[in-house]
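Tip: read the tokens left to right.
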């Protein structure tokens, strides 16, 4: 009986932390200045919150329905691997297509990336 209430609290905490992370994703996506920082907000906290909800679902299915749902584990592993890679690829394409990158010190931070890409293409 105590284990069930502890698992209930863990599931509720996971979902609450995920909701807070989703809210921070939305706030970051609205408030941040350029595409690359917005991609960072969406990629990091967005995938983190979805992974927390998947973990809560896995715990719920395993404990209360007595079903080992390997699909939750596969989805968590896929998100863990695919979300950072896709965010990185989108940011690199934004730099290649000369999107303006926000910088407080007025340096062209994207120039280093474009030079490295140019060296690889030669």
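Filled-in amino acids:
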């Amino acid at each position: 009986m105590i284990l069930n209430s502890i698992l209930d609290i863990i599931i509720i905490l996971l979902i609450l932390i995920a909701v807070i992370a989703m809210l921070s994703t939305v706030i970051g996506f609205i408030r941040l200045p350029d595409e690359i920082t917005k991609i960072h907000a969406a990629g990091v906290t967005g995938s983190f919150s979805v992974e927390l909800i998947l973990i809560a679902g896995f715990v719920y299915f395993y404990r209360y329905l007595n079903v080992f749902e390997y699909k939750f584990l596969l989805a968590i592993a896929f998100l863990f691997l695919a979300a950072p890679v896709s965010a990185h690829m989108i940011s690199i394409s934004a730099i290649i297509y000369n999107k303006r990158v926000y910088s407080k010190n007025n340096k062209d931070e994207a120039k280093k990336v474009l030079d490295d890409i140019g060296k690889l293409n030669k």
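Residues 6-121 form one domain. Helices lie at 2-31, 35-64, 70-96, 110-121.
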